[in-house]
Write a structure and sequence with these properties.
The complex is a heterodimer of chains A (105) and B (183). Helices cover 47% and strands 10% of the residues of chain A. By secondary structure, chain A is mainly alpha-helical. In chain B, strand 1 (23-28), helix 1 (33-48) and strand 2 (52-57) form a beta-alpha-beta unit. Chain B has 183 residues and is α/β, with parallel strands linked by helices. Chain B has helices spanning 33-48, 62-65, 99-102, 107-121, 127-136, 145-150, 168-174; strands at residues 23-28, 52-57, 140-144, 162-166, 179-182.
Chain lengths: 105, 183
């Protein structure tokens, strides 16, 4: 398994760049991964989604799908595509230190 | 001698155009419940992967976006060899539903309810909700002009999110370079 140095931390990632151990995550890492994903600054709205994903992902053991985020966190689909353009669920999962979301919706 | 390199793992059929985002276009020509879902599911998956999506509804496919029809799409057991008795929860293996039974009044409604219940169980959104999700996520939805004229429909007959009524030629222009899937 590959390791990567992000924000001064040595973290484990898979082939697609998703963190494999959610416990290694912290907010500084999120900020750095977000930059790599083309989001220069994380707003309060971004954090609302990230916080939900962290909570949901760590308790269920898997990254929430886009529909899970929109229905359970009450974030509009439109807003998700504005906040995390081009594949929001995958992007937010990566930033939140979770695996790739599975499931068709 | 040619030796294996890291780049050799990319399949040759994958054409990457870095300057242009990937674009998938679906042509929906069928209006039954089971033929409505493929484009919705794949379109949603494409958007989730950062791929642009265009859907062109033509012929019976217009039922999918017709606001008077969208909640009443049906699944017909007649002429569908994949519908087995076991779908109704009876352990009968490969035994099919006899066609004559499928033709009985109420069987289409029954099969439709069965499919809708099964989908609701695994949290699949309804067709109407899916269309809304796709439109919100930036998919472009279009109705075929020729069919619209033929069926005497108007823009007001379609669900919100349908952008315009366009000709087949317009569709060709809009999908230049896209991967096209016909359903």
């Amino acid at each position: 398994m590959a390791t990567k140095n992000i924000a001064g931390h040595q973290i484990h990632v898979n082939d697609e760049g998703f963190m494999t151990d959610p416990q290694e995550w912290d907010k500084e890492i999120a900020v750095e991964i977000a930059k790599e994903e083309g989001i220069p600054e994380l707003s309060l709205q971004h954090w609302k989604v990230i916080d939900f994903c962290r909570q949901d992902g760590v308790s269920s053991g898997k990254a929430p799908t886009l529909r899970r985020i929109t229905t359970a966190a009450g974030v509009l689909t439109k807003d998700m595509f504005t906040l995390f353009p081009k594949g929001p669920a995958k992007k937010v999962a990566k930033i939140s230190g979770l695996g790739k979301p599975e499931g068709c919706v | 001698m040619v030796t294996a390199t890291a780049t050799a793992t990319t399949p040759t059929f994958v054409v990457k155009q870095e300057d242009k985002p990937r674009h998938i276009a679906f042509i929906c020509s069928k209006g039954s419940l089971d033929m409505a879902y493929p484009a919705l599911v794949m379109g949603w998956a494409a958007l989730g992967n950062g791929i642009d999506v265009t859907i062109f509804f033509t012929f019976w496919g217009l039922d999918i976006i017709n606001k008077h029809r969208v909640d009443h799409l049906e699944l017909a057991p007649v002429g569908n060899p994949s519908m087995k008795m076991s779908m109704m929860g009876v352990d009968t293996g490969n035994l099919g539903i006899p066609q004559i039974m499928g033709a009985l009044p109420g069987m289409t409604a029954f099969a439709t309810k069965l499919m809708k219940d099964k989908m609701a169980k695994i949290d699949v959104p309804s067709v109407r909700e899916y269309l809304q999700m796709l439109a919100d996520a930036g998919a472009k939805l279009y109705a075929c002009k020729m069919t619209v004229d033929m069926m005497g429909l108007r823009k007001e007959d379609f669900v919100e999110g349908v952008e315009a009524i366009v000709t087949a030629g317009d569709f060709m222009d809009m999908t230049d370079g896209a991967q096209v899937v016909f359903i």
